[in-house]
Amino acid sequence: MPEIQIRKFDLKDRSEVRRISCETSFLEEDRGLFIEDDEILSDALTLYYTDYEPESCFVAVNRDRVVGYVIGTKDANRMEKVFFKQILLKFIKKAFCKHLFIKVKTWRLFFYISMSALKGEFNAPHFSAQYPAMLHINVDKDYRGCQIGKSLIGHYMNYLKEQGISGVYFGTISNEAKAFFSKLGFKLLYESKRSYLRYQTGKILPFYILGKSLGQAV
């Protein structure tokens, strides 16, 4: 059993958090089938958290190597505003500079995401009134089964309680994540389907939103 330390995120951890975010994206399907640029992908998955609210991030470390993380926000509404006002345009400009918009894979992914949107698959209810915080967690696949995820969530929950936050929620397309968080006392708030990865996975994926009141123990 590796010796794991959970600590606050530091700027030096940024590259490893981004690496893990890419390696665990798309349900660990070959991400190159969907998008070829890890910088753009990791920006989409982690940039707000690590660059705009790093105080709400924690990492799991084994011998100075980051092997997992939980990154989040105390205020999902604020995160959304920052994303649209400060991040989105820079993100699009970077994608243009990297010539992603002339690549077939990019347009294919964009097309299927657009089709999902037109079907109303992204029209989920808002839960931020009762659950203002959000989280995003991943653990390096070589370190799973070591209680790292539970420890990360425990530290994050304690942090949110200290900040006076009433609840936290998140979305996932993973049945394994749903089962894991259900064991930690999260309840299912919403369930639907997502079809935008069907062209590569051959499956229509479930989509779950789970939430937890911070009055409950982890």
Summarize the structure.
The chain is α+β, with helices and mostly antiparallel strands.
Describe the structure.
The protein has 218 residues and is α+β, with helices and mostly antiparallel strands. It has a domain at 5-126 and 139-165: 3-Layer(aba) Sandwich (Aminopeptidase), CATH 3.40.630.30. 41% of the residues lie in helices and 22% in strands. Strands 1-2-3-4-5-7-6 form a 7-stranded mixed sheet, sandwiched between helices. Strand 2 (57-62) and strand 3 (65-73) form a beta hairpin. Helix 1 packs across helix 2 and helix 2 runs antiparallel to helix 3 (76-97). The model has no long low-confidence stretch (mean pLDDT 93).
Helix content: 40-55%
Principal-axis shape equals: globular
Strand portion: 15-25%
- What is the element string, with H for helices and E for strands? EHHEEHHEHEHEHE
Gyration radius, rounded: 17 Å
Main attributes?
218 residues; alpha+beta; Aminopeptidase; seven-stranded mixed beta sheet; 7 strands; 22% strand
Topology:
Layout: E1 5-8, H1 14-23, H2 38-52, E2 57-62, E3 65-73, H3 76-97, H4 104-118, E4 133-139, H5 148-162, E5 167-172, H6 175-183, E6 187-194, H7 198-201, E7 205-213
Parallel strand pairs: 4-5
Antiparallel strand pairs: 1-2, 2-3, 3-4, 5-7, 6-7
